[in-house]
Amino acid sequence: MDIARKNQIAAGLAEVEKRIAEACRAAGRPREEVTLIAVTKTYPAEDVRILAGLGVTEVGENRDQEAADKAHACADLPLTWHFVGQLQTNKVRSVVGYADLVHSVDRSRLVAAIGREAVRAEREIGCLVQVALDDDPGRGGARPADVLGLADEIAATEGVRLGGLMAVAPLGEEPGKAFARLRDLALAVQAGHPGATIISAGMSGDLAEAVARGATHVRVGTALLGRRKPFVR
Ligand SMILES: *Cc1c(COP(=O)(O)O)cnc(C)c1O
């Protein structure tokens, strides 16, 4: 193992832990209410292994091919895999093979496809409805008006379990304001589905704002592993 890299990641993890603990304290929430998901996209399986050695149990990825390879290489580790990227239906079979939760469920066809493949694989996949907190459909996410309906569909579909909601803060708006709308939607979903307790919000730049608005899961990449090299999709 690369000791220098391990020390670097350990330092990043300690810093992120400090920020989460501080945000919880400021919000008057117990630290255990917030789960850290390490988003490892563009970083190698060796980094996932280092994170696991440091006690991280939740890993997030956003592209199927890369995630599939990494999950396979790390199959011996006790990890929960979160798929957080936009998902095409033709990738669903592959994603269902390794992901425990899909955070980016934003349309009916995707619910049906995940359910079908999960039943086929004899798995149960946690699904979060991704909410578009702005009006830019290009970035993924269901419109707020469609969220309750989609949640009901997930809850009624075999092979999937409704976990809750996910969002990315919109560009050009104070993230706390957007996360407050997400929390209100999450409470509306929970009124009908009390088990749908997950609010996946907050990344390296805005995790404190998300924790202040009730996030239960923060998805952190850069602050743990460093700045990603730009890549072409
Ligand atoms: C990359 C990514 C993250 C992590 O972002 P950072 O700013 O690097 O912490 C979180 N959520 C999603 C959906 C991502 O694609």
Automatic annotation (TrEMBL):
One of its GO terms (molecular function) is pyridoxal phosphate binding. The modification N6-(pyridoxal phosphate)lysine is found at residue 41. Its cofactor is pyridoxal 5'-phosphate. Keywords: Pyridoxal phosphate. Residues 16-227 form the Alanine racemase N-terminal domain. InterPro entries: Ala_racemase_N, PLP-binding_barrel, PyrdxlP_homeostasis. SUPFAM superfamilies: PLP-binding barrel. Belongs to the pyridoxal phosphate-binding protein YggS/PROSC family. Pyridoxal 5'-phosphate (PLP)-binding protein, which is involved in PLP homeostasis. This is Pyridoxal phosphate homeostasis protein. The lineage of its organism: Bacteria, Bacillati, Actinomycetota, Actinomycetes, Streptosporangiales.
